Hints:
Chain B: It comes from Nocardioides oceani. By secondary structure, chain A is an alpha+beta fold.
Amino acid sequence: MDLNTVTSFRRPTAREDLRLGAGETLLAGGTWLFSEPQPGTTGLVDLTTLGWPAVELLEDGTLRIGATCTVAELVGSPLVDPLAPLVRSAADALLMSFKIQHAATVGGNIALALPAGAMTSLTAGLGGVAVVWTPDGGERREPVAELVRGVGTTSLAAGEVLRAVDVPPAALAVRTAFRRMSLTPHGRSASVVVGAGDRITVTAATTRPVVLDAGRLEEGLAAVDCWYDDPHGAPDWRAAVTATLAREVVRELGA
Amino acid sequence: MIVDGRPVTGEPRPGQCLRTWLREQGTTAVKKGCDAGDCGACSVLVDGQPVHSCVHPAVRAVGHEVTTAAGLGTPEAPSPVQQRFLDAQGFQCGFCTAGYVVTATALAEEDGTVQRDGLAQAFKGNLCRCTGYRSIRDALAGKTNVAATGAFGCSTAAPAGRRLVTGREHFTLDLPTEGVLHAKLLASPHPHARITRIDTSRAEALPGVHLVLTHRDAPDVLYSTGRHDSRLDDPDDTRLLDDVVRFRGQRVAVVVADSVAVAEQALGLLEVEYAVLPAVLDPEEARRPGAPLVHGEKSPTASRIADPSRNVVAQTHGEVGDVAAGLAAAAHRVSGTWRTSRVTHAAMETHGARGWLDEDGRLVVRSATQVPFLVRDELAHVLDLDPDRVRVVTGRVGGGFGGKQEMLVEDVVALAVLRTGRPVQLELTREEQFTMAPGRHPMRVEVELGADAEGVLTAIRLDVLSDTGAYGNHGPGVMFHACHESVALYRCANKRVDAEAVYTHNVPAGAFRGYGLGQVLLGIESALDELAREVGISATEIRRRNVVRPGDEFVVNGPPDTDLVFGSYGLDQCLDLVEDALARGDGDPAPPGWLVGEGMAPAMIATIPPRGHHAEATVTREPDGTVTVGVGTAEFGNGTATVHVQLVAEELGIDPALVRVRGGDTDAATYDTGAFGSTGSVVAGGAVVAAARDLRAQLDAGAGTDGGPVVGRGEHHGSPRSVAFNVHGVRVAIDPATGELRILRSVHALDAGVVINPEQLRGQVDGGVAQGIGSALLEDVRIAGDGEVTTRTFRGYRVPQMGDVPTTEVLFADTHDTLGPHGAKSMSEAPYNPVAPALANAVRDALGVRPHELPMTRDRLWRLARNARSSTPPSTPPATPPATPPATQEEP
Lengths: 255, 892
């Protein structure tokens, strides 16, 4: 939809240009920003003009996913071949269509911090670490599973920019498994369970990512205190379904 | 930017999306369905890549090549994908079609073939509310559904098809935007409040603002947004703008400005102070003494509200026979209470209208309406104009389903045009469709049945409570209809019906496909299913033993109907067809460990609404030999334009290609009540047939030999009325661990008399069944404790996607109606009605415990399955019927 309060559109070419003026907000794919009224937003600053590489393999084997990497680019990148089934499943778990995936970005999906954010599910599930540019020109790193704090809230402070997500080399080598459930076959996820080795990550069913140990699954599930309640599924059902899915994931990875 | 091969210069606004930019350039193939990336109606290709143009920043498309459906082909030379949509008739209203064509093109090979794997995933971002997706899947698969011949009884192609698939058909607001003012509405933040002060001065001072309307500007006339042939059918409880707001989201003020942007900005400058009043959101609470009154100050007689002091807008209390005695004599008794949800119509085109003054100073309103004549007459009433000074026209209407049997935007537009003298447009947002526009009446349906040892009914007791929301538009009509054919379907000497429609401070409900029958059927058909179990006979058999058949009267809770007759009777065939189809045992296999169940439900519907439905039509033989049909009804995917062409071609014995329809215009005919109550074929069609016969008689008598035009005239007055029948059957599998339900088999039999156009008829069934599945399993407009609608977007709600709707086998009974045109009966709302109860009965069969609440979402089914495991369901003790008050029957 038209964002009628917006009067400026900046195309930054350097990191310094990311300092936001009053009313400015960062624009990545735009698929969420343009999907809801944004009262008070008067300017857009287009991250995609910075030319961040979509996906890189760093020297130490870390897989770096640029924040502006689109979902479609990630799915299509040969660098994620070892994770291809998981990445594909996560992309399919997005409520929005494949057309949206051509524009929607990994960073945007994480920064939105929706419980059903499928890129949060994916990167948190792999133990991904967010690379955050701080306003002082520095950088800080925080696991995605911790950066996403709750429904629509992250640890990102004013002036901070999510630059990338680093997937550690070890995560590229472990076996992975993926399960999801929603009220309709292709609807908004009500529970997503990603298994990577012994790491079991629950998203969508909870208000924030919850990481469990495959070896102590039942104990971990019993301790979850943030089952999510919205029109896409009641919390008691999410808890029960998540337990079922998590057990399936553990069984698959243990097989 | 290159748009459809044409260079476009200029700079989009920084916050503009590509959709509105394209439309400003005159590229109206891109539609606004949701404006939020959910529905796909605005899909375009940017450098060959498909995107939703509503969430694509327009500035990003500068320097790129944009292709819409209009750039892919022309009506004369459609693209391979477009041709497939034509061959399959993969559309109804067509509002989503251009987006479908673009999306399919992005996935298709050169020859238009789309890989069949993963269609549900690929098209989850393309919503269609009309077709139920079957004909779209047919199009993607390259199937031909349209007949080569245009003859009566064949699957003639819809006249608008070529324009629809190539993005050229003009819907309501597909008009040039220059010189048009735009209206935006300020919504109430309170469910009930008195406006104590409005200061409009800051808004009026904003450059570009032309007009601000508040309650001070509204005529002191009470009316109803709900429209019927008689304006007395709905309560006069609404003002154009009121100083009391009665639901959160109700319009408080209107700003008219040069652009939507300026109007939005001005809304923020309006200063409104409210005295917040107590509100009641629960319909049970609303009737209790001391409840806040929604329209307590209004006169029951002047406003036609049954009891404003109890928030009751309409009621019926009556009994035939002796229900207490019938229950006492029963060998088997069952009872239960069922609840249905609020549902949004989700017509892909939102409510919208544009008005202007023509050269003669006459007010013209182009509106997305099912009832142009009724809107014309009510505009004249509200604004104190001569109806001759008002013209209401439609373009192609993007879906109706009853939602456009309301006057929701035309009143504001008309007043703004009269005040400014300028063209003014108001287009509701998708969010406003949820928060401001009426949806389906939620109902509480209590049923008690008694039967003898053979399963023959000895008593029916029905108690219904309908939540009409803050205004009573369609409240009385829906309540009476809901309790009518649902009860009249069964022969039983003892029947009691108590029903009330109550005001609450919720968003209003209104007319919606089935007009209440689906809600009450859930209760009655669930109870009958339970009764069959008690008696030990099949679900079909208990219907056979109890349904009405020719010779019976139609009885609810008072004297029988006087103008309802069996024009033909195919219910027996429908019951057999569905029973046989399910007995074949085919369909998808159930996954291991899932619980399987079958269910069915029948439904009856009068072919025409009661209390008058009128159409006057002309059929003109033009000098060039072509024939023009002048008829008042609008085309919104109901297919009446096709049917009218077929009827005229059949009557005159000419090629359908020679016939064109001019409809949806108060200037095109003298009168038409409108296309609701499934009347486009039987009433307007009846008038068209009569006009064609008149023309033929004149031609046979030698008229027109001079080559001049010859005009035949016909009319139809909607009485007597016939009955049509539907039976739906399903087999489902449910995973008790997750509540996931799969429909393994879906079959629908119907008695629509003689079938005029099999493909279109099947399409109406597909669409009705899909909406039934939506209500049964998915859809729920939620309202929070403070009256706020919390499901405000398609992604926060669940309109069935392609992957949610299985293919339904559609079977036609063979009957010939004595009343309808060429033996046909109406059939458009009815297929919706039996779907939810059939699914509920299948769930009961699978889980061993009966669902009592819609929608039966997975979380609820999971709970049901868990409860079934942990205990047997508590049986409700049969309630003692209340002491019988004197029967009162208050018809609206």
